[in-house]
Amino acid sequence: METSRRTVLAAAAAAGLTAVAAPGTAHAKEGGAPVKELFGTLADGTPVHRWTLENGGTRMRVLSYGGIVQSLEVPDRRGRYANVSLGFDRLEDYVASSPYFGALIGRYGNRIGGGRYTLDGREYRLSVNDGPNSLHGGAAGFDKRVWDVEPFRSPAGVGLVLRYVSADGEMGHPGRLATTVTYTLTGDGDWRIDYAATTDRPTVVNLTNHTYFNLAGEGSGDVLGHELRLAASRYTPTDATLIPTGELAGVAGTPFDFRHGKPIGRDIRTAHPQLVGAQGYDHNWVLDKGTTRAPGYAATLRDPGSGRTLRITTTEPGLQFYSGNFLDGTLSGPSGRTYRQGDGLCLETQHFPDSPNKPDFPSTVLRPGETYRSTTVHRFSAR
Ligand code: BGC
């Protein structure tokens, strides 16, 4: 952990300020083994567990259902904790209607146009769940599956290994896909995600996590005052159904230019056709670093009020910045407050949407004998 963060946390502990926890929920020891509890039961009787992890001053709660990050608690510049991720208190709410709060997304993050693609001369028709398109893996994507969860404590930190085997043909995709996702909280309080997958037939894969961040705390209002920096000179404009046109457009001189950092709200109401079509930001930025072996710099998000800062590095070539446009005040979080448009935002590291139909985009094809790998690191600090 950075020394300044240690000092702030020690001072906060001395002042009696500790991580927030709803009454009756499990606690994990800082740096200790993850703690498991029953969270709920699905209609078919399957139990869903919740794991609590704490390390380096960061605490998170993860569900076996959808690999959902139910809460993520980090300190502000004075050591005061808040849950900076949108979510629910009850399993029923996640099952009934969740806009992918905190969830693992697969087999294909974001949209595949027309819900179909051709691979090696064969056409595959997918589960269509977003107008004419397949979104986030289809009607029952990885966000709605119960994952096998194994806790660990290692020199890398404390964490969970989540496993799910997607059957050949599931949601229309070919190949039995064996997926392993590792969530690690490092000694520095970073939340690291390592994704891996193998297949027995050629298929496409694009995994991500759909956490909605509000660094002032969930339920505290909108994120329009958060400052965002994106290390991307280009983005992929979309058609009316949010499928990329195929063009890589320059951000210079447009509301899409976040290269030098700016408040999210500064240009969000510009009548730019791309912002009108998506009701805000809901686009894939083409990261200047491209696909990398080691995680490279992608984005920084900062809430000036609390000082909480999130820095994202990734091996992926793209990042979907979604400004919570479709939150409409009908869902409410653990704070008991409703979520309205812009009350949280997603920064989803990924390959570009609709890549299976865009031969010029970096390929998402995975073949037998190969291993899909992807890593994203979320670094929290407060300044
Ligand atoms: C997509 C949005 C979609 C949202 C679902 C985002 O990743 O880009 O278009 O509405 O997920 O909540």
From TrEMBL:
Domain of life: Bacteria
Binding site residues for beta-D-galactose: 110-111, 210-212, 282
Catalytic activity: alpha-D-glucose = beta-D-glucose
GO molecular function terms listed in the Swiss-Prot or TrEMBL record: aldose 1-epimerase activity; carbohydrate binding
InterPro entries according to UniProt: Ald1_epimerase_CS (IPR018052), Aldose_1-epimerase (IPR015443), Aldose_1/G6P_1-epimerase (IPR008183), Gal_mutarotase_sf_dom (IPR011013), Galactose_mutarotase-like (IPR047215), GH-type_carb-bd (IPR014718), TAT_signal (IPR006311)
Annotated pathway: Carbohydrate metabolism; hexose metabolism
The keyword ATP-binding is assigned to this record: no
Annotated protein name in UniProt: Aldose 1-epimerase
